[in-house]
Amino acid sequence: SQINPTSYFRYFEPCLRDGKDILYLCFTSGMSSTIQSAQLCIEELKGQYPDRTILCMDTLSASLGEGFLVREAARKQTEGLSLEQLSQWVTEHRLQVCHWFTVDMFDHLRYGGRVSSAMAAAGTVLQIKPLLHVDDAGKLAVVEKPRGRKRAISAQIARMEPRSGETGRNRSWRLP
After folding, report:
1. At what angle do helices 83-93 and 63-78 cross, to 10 degrees?
2. Burial 110-131 (b: 16+ CB within 10 A, else e)
3. Do the Cβ atoms of 172 and 160 come closer than 8 Å?
4. Integer CA distances (angstroms), 147 to 77, 132, 144, 157, in order
5. Cβ-count burial of 167 within 10 angstroms (0-12 exposed, 13-18 middle, 19+ buried)?
6. Euclidean distance between CA atoms 140 and 43, whole angstroms
7. How far apart are alpha carbons 123 and 104 in whole angstroms?
8. Higher model confidence: residue 143 or residue 38?
9. pLDDT tops 60 at residue 175
10. Pick from 36, 93, 20, 102: nearest CA to 63
C-alpha cells in the first residue's frame, strides 16, 4: 500500500534535524504513487530545513532491483560520491537493472489486483508460472505464461542472457 506523507516525515525529519542530507530512492512510480507522498513530505520539510538537501528519486525498480540500486548507491557513497553524484549514478544505471522473475503462486498477484480470483485459480490448476518483467517505465508486465516451473525458469534464463549492444532493461548488467 502507499506510504503516507506522515510516515515519511517521521523518518526524514530527525535526519534533517541532525544536520544530515537525504537521498531517497523510491519504489517505482510505475506500480505505486508512493513517490507523490514522499514529494509532498519533502516540500514541507524543505520549508523547515532550507539549508538541507533532500533528493527523491524514482528508481523505476521494485523488490530486488530497488534493493540492488540502494546497495550500490551505498557502496558508491563509501567511495566518496556526493549526494548529487549518487543521484546522477542512480539515474544513469536504474534502467540497467535486470528485472525478470517468475512466481509459483498467484496469491500476491491476486491480492495486488493484478489478476482476478478466477484467473488465479485457473493459473494454479494449469500450473502456469507467469514470467514477469519490470519495463523501462517501471511497470510490471507479463511477458510469457509458461506451464510448469522448469519451463518458467528456462524462459527466465533465456531472457537474462547477456545481450551486448542493447539498451534499457533488455540488457543484462553485472557488477564490475
Report:
1. 140
2. beeebbeeeebeebeeeebbbb
3. yes
4. 43, 14, 10, 15
5. exposed
6. 29
7. 10
8. 38
9. no
10. 102
Q: Please report which confidence band the pLDDT of residue 169 belongs to, taking 50, 70 and 90 as the band edges.
A: low
Query: What are the residues whose beta carbons fall under 8 Å from the beta carbon of 39, sequence distance 6 or more?
Result: 56
Per the CB < 8 A criterion, the answer to whether 157 and 139 are in contact is no
Does pTM top 0.85 for this prediction? no
User: What is residue 164's predicted lDDT score, i.e. its pLDDT?
Assistant: 42
CA–CA separation, 127 and 123 (whole Å) = 6
- Which uninterrupted H or E stretch holds 59? none
The three three-digit cell numbers of residue 18, written as one number = 541532525
User: Which residue type occupies 131?
Assistant: L
